[in-house]
Amino acid sequence: MSExxxxxxxxxxxxxxxxxxxxxxxxxxxxxxRFLRKSPFDADFDRALLHDLRFNADGSEKDFAFNRDGxxxxxxxxxxxxxxxxxxxxxAVEVLVANDIRAVIAPSMGDIHYNNCVxxxxxxxxxxxxxxxxxxxxxxxxPGAEIAVDLDSQTITGPDQATYSFEIDGFDKHRLLNGLDxxxxxxxxxxxxxxxxxxxxxxxxxLS
Amino acid sequence: xxxxxxxxxxxxxxxxxxxxxxxxxxxDRHLTHDMHHRAFPDLKHRGLKLREPxxxxxxxxxxxxxxxxTIDDIPEGEMRMTVxxxxxxxxxxxxxxxxxxxxxxxxxxxxxxxxxxxxxxxxLVCGDSHTSTHGAMGCLAFGIGHSEVxxxxxxxxxxxxxxxxxxxxxxxxxxxxxxxxDVILAIIQKIGTAGGTGYAIEYAGSAIDQLSMEGRMTxxxxxxxxxARIGMIAPDDKCIDYCRGLTFAPKADQxxxxxxxxxxxxxxxxxxxxxEITFDGDLIEPMVTWGVSPQWGVPITGTVPDPKDEPDPxxxxxxxxxxxxxxxxAGMPVSDIKIDTVFVGACTNSRxxxxxxxxxxxxxxxxxxxxxxxxxxxxxxxxxxxxxxDKVFIDAGMExxxxxxxxxxxxxxxxLQPGERSASTSxxxxxxxxxxxxxxxxxxxxxxxxxxxxGHLTDVRELLKGDGQ
Lengths: 208, 469
Ligand code: SF4
Fold this sequence. Notes:
The structure holds two protein chains of two kinds. Chain A has helices spanning about 25-30, 50-55, 90-100, 110-120, 130-140, 170-180, 180-185, 190-205; strands at about 15-20, 75-80, 105, 125, 145-150, 155, 165. By secondary structure, chain A is α/β, with parallel strands linked by helices. A seven-stranded mixed beta sheet of chain A has the order 4-3-2-1-5-6-7. Chain B is α/β, with parallel strands linked by helices. Chain B starts with a helix and ends with a helix. In chain B, helix 13 runs parallel beside helix 15 and helix 13 packs parallel to helix 16 (about 445-455). In chain B, strand 3 (about 30-35), helix 2 (about 40-45) and strand 4 (about 55-60) form a beta-alpha-beta unit. Chain B contains 17 helices and 19 strands. At the A-B interface, helix 4, helix 7 and helix 8 of A face helix 2, helix 3, helix 6, helix 11 and helix 12 of B. Bound molecules: iron/sulfur cluster.
């Protein structure tokens, strides 16, 4: 049994997008700790995403963007400052994958969460605060409006057809476009790792 | 141009650098805990094994009930499965495992330095964001995700991009009852929870020199709450003395060459940082947080902010939402905030010095709020008992528990009820962190004990004055 769904190569797509108007939406909000011992294959795992913001204690839905018509089933999240700050829990990406969220757009993100997104095939996109504010406003005004994401050309197209370009590290882009798993990739450097380790242990002998 | 402490350690570990700046780094030591137990069956399924099993160190912490002494004491279910998972794969994979009945087990970020697994000059990783803690020992340490955990297990290496570098200098002298916790809360209050994002932070200055190793660990621990994955402090005599004689530290015949190298680990005088910030240590007071982000802090002499004073509308909305969640009134003195439960523990503040600071306040007083004291490791628990601290706590009506993460993350049964309010020495006050609907005020151990014996957030300096201190 593998632990999560295998990564798919990242393809150009367009989808409804969900605005999350919360600054510093930390990983404890994205997936509360009590779900961390669940496996991505458990029934209802998808409900863990933003659980306490989406659901009441009795399991009924709260009035929250995710639950509104038009936003339901969206594959893109448009967030605010410092999305995914907090812990290193990769479940915060697994729950995105479980909900078929393929991209998160935000002005800034937690460093570890950003890396985890890339490792699990979710595209993190950083735009300016103004652009994110504008996109969220457009989505709030017209729920169901679509955003198109093109990783190859590093652009997205908003509901009003305005295009925005974004930066991404070349290596991250390569991994995402090809759905590559890092372990396989690094194994090709096996010989170099061994040689380095030998030399390193010679000069830092107390660590050998 | 000179090199920073960060550069020196980074450069010593570069296996390969790609044209796009991505670097394959050699990893000296890897710590892990129960929440990663699923990595092992996954590796097995894929026919993979550990490249250097003696460099992986595992300890159960997140899922350990603080009333349990052995696995058999854990009730059947998810918690037990998780701790058992980490235990049972040890045989097949060969990593170093500190089992529950081994006094060396405890919170992963307490165990690392305590055992000499964490040493100056190394690169250490762990699948946990508070791995920044270990930078207090003059090494480069950062948290990684679960995919990266498996990557390090199999390759003993990791792909990274070089972060930017920031130096935070704390000048002057810290006042009485002002601890590493207060310093970091003051820093985060100023620079915000994203202030360090993309940076590795080096701490320096006279107030940092003054801190004990425990205080430095607290400071580096919460560096992640400032957004930076890495916090570090150059190793000095205090640090080197701390390492001496520890189980996984250099042995006698290697000691001198190790120390000789460690002494070179400091930023050169002409090294450049991408950002520099200075704080006056004399001005830092005991701190508390009032909101649902570690950046919402205030000195204990201060008041809860009024959203009306905040010009930025998004920030104002955040403050309003935080006040509603925390059930606090704008403008009220923070020392009027009543506390239901006190938690002294977590990888931030569960070391022996932390327990001593809490005991000093608790001695001869009685807790007015439920108080849990949770040592960071079995060894710390033992040491505290040798010093009689357990008796001080128990006499004050506090609960003396077995080591683990406990109420920091509420994954082991120790938790707050909805709406319950804590003074906690942990590092995160996020909504629901200590249980759904929980309300958390982050404080130092001395401040936590002061809240316990008065029932409200209290300036511990005032309280101790009565003791003639
Ligand atoms: S004590 Fe808290 S912050 Fe530290 S490792 Fe455990 S859960 Fe994480």
